[in-house]
Design goal:
By secondary structure, this protein is mainly α. It contains 7 helices and no strands. It has a domain of 107 residues. Helix content is 81%, strand content 0%. Helix 2 packs across helix 4 and helix 2 runs parallel beside helix 6. The two termini are 32 Å apart.
Amino acid sequence: MMAVPVLASNIYQAKFSKKSLEYCKRFWPLGLGQIVGVSLGVQVLVSADSNLLKICLGLIVLINIALRTTKWKLKIPSEKEVISGPVGGLAAGVVGGTTSFVGPLLVLYLSSLENLKKDDFVKAIALLYLGGFLPMYGGLALLGSFSWTQLLGSFAICFPMLIGIWLGERMRFK
């Protein structure tokens, strides 16, 4: 149900501009790793036991909470992004393709980078979500996991979601 709203919200937040090209140049290794990981993760999703996937999702949530509540902070210097990007992207992609829960690992990675401003973070993560979710949804569609009813319901959710994003942006820039 969330396929269309997720894509629409990330297209809206990415707001393609000249700066989008800068993000693509900086984060292409991360995005490439993510696309490969999503492709692998989707195959796991359609073939794995759903109870095992639920346990994995629960572990990811618990690890994310543990990382956010400790004083430990990962720091990745700019010169290491070419190496750390594909590894972080692959991990986020596998998790995202398997659980559609790509966010925590991407947020952890991006928040660990030096010299990434708040607005740059929002645009970069939106582009990365697009890069990850397009192959995920495409793979799921090819594997027969979407029905027309789900797709129509997904479109119906878009309008209130876009209003919420617009209101959130207005509050953020005040």
